[in-house]
Amino acid sequence: MRETLRQLRLVGGLAGRDLFHEWRVSLCLALAIAAVLAPLLVLFGLKSGIVDTLTARLKSDPRNLEIVWRLNASLEPGWLERLRANPQVGFAVPSTRTLAATLDLAAADGKGLQDVDLIPTDKGDPLFGADARIPEGLGELALSFEAAGKLGVSAGMSVEGIVYRNLHQQRQVLRLPLRVSAVLAESRYSGWGALVALPLLEALERYRDGYAVPELGVADGTSHTSGSPRYARLRLYARSLEAVPGLAESLRGQGYDVSIRGKDIALVRNIDHALSFLFRLIAGVGIAGCVLSLGASLWANVERKRRELALLRLVGIRNRLLAGFPAVQAAGVAAAGVALSFAAYFAAAEAIDRIFRADLGRDEFVCRLLLRDGVTASLLTETLAVLAALIAMAAVLRIEPGESLREV
Q: Where is the ABC3 transporter permease C-terminal domain (predicted)?
């Protein structure tokens, strides 16, 4: 065993010194590997960077996770609870009829908005940022960026909600003092909208339907008989971008008319598939050529050194250990090629990201190679290089010790 280890160290040392002695040839082989590997690293970095950036942008916009209810339905509380228990569901809150979900708003300085959409909200609403306060009870609302700008109000200020109804052939007006708990970011919601707690939305629907609503101070109207509530619509968001299509298909299978922003999701998937196909195609052709070229070069190197290798066999180096000579050289050349490739990749990635920096966010990249992908590429290159040396290793195994004496 000790003799085997000694011979292994000897063969490895000789292979390394031979590489340094013929450094010009070794450098050419390393550059050949880098010429194939560096473009592949850049291409894979572009694939990862572009797809990851687009996916992150889609995930950061909650509208891409939303499953939109297109028509009014009749949703039971039990069905809603079962839906909320679905692991694909990230947020769900019921809503009233479309026609009952509007009101007029007036600011203290006289600015006003008509027919502002009322949107139900609850804890965990993806439209709200981490620091935004979600409205609660009957006296609060959150405004969209456009609505708040039109009214000239901000979080903490008050507005007046105005709702009309016709009862007993008379036009009645309900005025509600409402506190603005938060203003949504402009990217989260477009248009004039007000988010309110579900109890306020239900109370306004009952008011419009001609019922008395004591919680709003309205005694005029028919007494509302409590029972199992039914809802016309639903605000629904999937837990992840990948869950959106499946959840939408499940609801359509139950007869509900829903829609999603499927074009944006499909676009990212198509880009991912196209870049993956392009990468596999180029990688396959490039790697095959590189392996054949390296294998031929190593085989030629063995043929040039047949006499020297035969001499090593003559002095007692075992045949199967001597076969490691080209394998060690292949691993050394591959390591140098990998180093050159990553140097070229980092330079190219920095240049690409710098060109597109103006269009990127703080943590976004056009070209980015993850650590695990870099390690995988390095290990794969080393493995393929050793496999390429099999031709040369087979040639070494055919060398006879007597060949070293023929030219003496």
A: 281-400
